[in-house]
Structures are given as structure tokens and as C-alpha cells.
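Worked Example 4.2. Consider the chain below.
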Amino acid sequence: MSKLLWKSLLAAPAALGAAFAVSGSAVAAESAPVSEVATVDALEQVSFDQEPVELAQITSVSELTDVLPTDWAFQALQNLVETYGCIEGYPDRTFRGQRALTRFEFAAGLNSCLNVVAGLTGQGVDPDDLAAIRRLQEEFQAELATLRGRVDALEAETAELRAQQFSTTTKLSGEVDMHLGVPFSTFDANDIQEDSTSVASRVRLNFDTSFTGEDRLRVRLQGGQGGFLEPVGNLANGGEESFDVVIDDFYYSFPLGSRINLTVAAKGMVADDWVTSSIVPYDGPAVAAASTPGFYSSGGSSSDGAGAGISFALTDNFVIDAGYTAGYDGAGDPGVGIFSASSQSYIAQLSYLSGGFLDAAFAYMHNDVSDFPNGGSTDTFAGLLNLDFGNFFVAGYGAWQDFDGGDDFNWTAGVGFNDLFLEGSQLGVYGGQLPQLADYDSNPWIVEGYYEIPFNEFLTITPAIIYGDADYGEGGDDTTFYGAVRATFSF
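Applying the procedure from the previous section yields the following C-alpha cells:
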């Protein structure tokens, strides 16, 4: 018996692998993934406690689906399982014996296994075997002491973080956008003149609170000032009239079962805020606001309104989103009520999100107030498409809008390269015909080329060249080129 035990112990490192877990005290293994809710922006969870995987005791090595009799350590593993009972498998009945094993994992696992063997002393274990066990325990005594010290230090740091953290339920994140724009020509029409170097800034602070780990209460503070590209819709991340701090978002999102997510908002949710994805990859990385499909913001309720929305994942790929927003001319006036507000917006979108080659969506919107020439209401039917060829994409949208007094068709299309020269970067070009608003005699045109460059996890720089053409029919120069740079700081 002595030789058999000795051979088993010598073969234990290879047999146990990185998942060296023993009865009585499992080595800390892979932590369970944190579940995320499929909201507009998934709430990131931060956990300082790593729970061990619930390992399953096995009585025969044949229960391990990834261990074969041809494996060189099969006999040693079989002996440890069936003779000493000090091996456990993962819940999916795998052993994962090919993973790399650290000395700390080996020391902790071996110590636990030896404790099991030592407990068999009253059942006639050979004294020579016990002597070998004691020698092995002494040999790894230093590693075990180091491991205990690291665990103690980690527990102390965790206690300190808990005592000093901002909140036990709330995470603070922020984003600062700073823009510099240089016009290559002058735009001068309809009392809008842009002919000088301009700056624009915006700052956001998000307070995201979770009470269950799956819900999110968001309060966003925002302030900013400045802007350019007004003839073709301004900047995607531009400022407001002043640096006055306002509550820009105020909503609560929570799951109802495993596939439904509900959101109620007091402010900040309208149009594309209700949908899981706007499909086109240049929405976000690009500098101009026209990078977001224009039909979402063409008419309808102000984002100051209150509303409610639902996101229903029919399958892992198909998602239905629906949302309603009422402007505060009704939502904030008990004498008018939410559903009698003069400014209202409804949206429904069916999206196919493959996570691979094809993403597509069909959207319908109804707006009770429109920016189109004769006011009234607007009905919009739109399709969105993205073809992902790996690091290269082709994407765009088209929207037909029927409004009181006429109709309109608007679109954009673009191509881009992800991870070009730098991981996390995006080089893209898009352009198209924007919605025809009240002041225009025809649809504005825009073309933008941009390159989003992540310098580190906190700073992203995006230079861009932008061409715009907006016909106001009043003479003047209604065509302009801009050179722009956006710096984004986030934490």
C-alpha cells in the first residue's frame, strides 16, 4: 500500500490540474459570472467576494467526462478518487486537468488531500505512508504560510474598501467630452453663422444604484456649453446653452422574469433611448449628431418628458422594444395629464442581434408633434442594417416619414474598420440625407470621416473631417467643411 500511495501523491499535481479541489475544503476556483440585465446600458456590478464553485463529490473516475483511460495520470487519479475519496469534479462533471497549476493551488490542494488521508490513520494506514505525508506537509509549509498571509491581506483590504466605499448600492461613473472645431469655409444662412474656431464641452456624472443586483436606478447630472455643426444637427456629445447642471436622466429599470425588462422614467428617455440597439456601429464613435439614425430624433416628445418602456427578448437573438414618452407640458401638469400632452412620442422596434455577421431592425414611430413644415403628427417606418465582416463593417438605415402636409425619406450609410492599427479603435466614413426639418427647403446632406483612438482606459481621442450642405433657400453660403477633434475622458 505504501508504494501505491506514494505514486498517487507524486502524480497528484498533474492529475488534479488547476481545478485541484478536495473534499472538506475546495480550492477557490472560478467565480460565478455576474448576471446582467438587458437594459439600454447594462449596469456593471462590482464584487469583492469570490464565492467558490459548488463542486460535486465523485465516487468513480468514470464520472469525469473529460478524463480518459489513455490519459497518462489516469491510474493515479483513479486511486485518489476510489481509494482515498479526495477528488471532486465541477458541476458539469468535468475535471479540467489540462489547466496550468500554480504552486499555491497545488500546496492548498495537497494539504487538504493529505488531511483526508491523515483521517484514515485509524483505519490501518501504513506508518511509512504517514511519515511520507508529514514530510510533504513540512516541505510545503512555507507556501501554505504565504498563502494564508495573502488571504489575510486580501481580507483586510476588502474590509477597508467596504468601510471607505462611496456606497454599498451605488456606483459613480463619469464622462467628459471636449471638442475643438475649425471651419474651412463659412456657413451663413438663416441667422446661423459659423466661420470661426469653436469649442464645446459636456460633462456627465452617472449615479447607478442597484438594490437586487439586476435592477438599476439611474440619476445623471449633466452640464455643458458650446457647439457647432448646427446646420446639420450639431455634435453628438455637444454642450447646452450654459454650464448649468441639470438632471438629464432619471429612470428605474428592472427585470420581470428572465426575458422581460421594464423601465419607468421621470426624465431623459425618448426614441432610441428605449431600444436595445440603434444597429449602426458609427453611432457613438463618430463626432457629429447625424451619426445617430436621424429618424429617432425627428419630431416627437422632448427628452424632458416622462415615460415607460419594455424590452422583451423573444429569443437569444430577437428583441422587441417599445416605449412611450410624454413631454412635461402634459406629464408635469395634473390638469392635462400624461396621455393628453401636446408633445408625445411612441416607438416600437424589432431587432435581430446575432453578435456576428448580421444585425438588423425594423422600427415604427408615431410623434404627435413634428419639426416638419406644417406641424401636426409624424409616422415613421425605418429599417436598419449592419453587416459585420470581422474587423470591417457595412451599415446604414433608411426611413420613410409621413407628416401632415407631405412625406420625407432620409438615410445614412457607412463603412468602417475596427481595431485598425490599435486595439479598440474604429476608422469610419458615413454620409447621407438627413430629415427635412421645418427651416430647410430640402434635406440636408452630411459626410463624416472619423478615427476613434483609445489612448488608455480613461482617454479617447477622435479626429474627424465633416462636410455639410443645408439649403435654407435664403442665399448665403450653406455648404461647409469642418475639421474637428473630440477628447473623451471617462471613469
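Confidence is low (pLDDT under 50) at residues 1-52. Residues 401 and 408 are 5 Å apart (CA to CA). Compare this with Example 4.1 before moving on.
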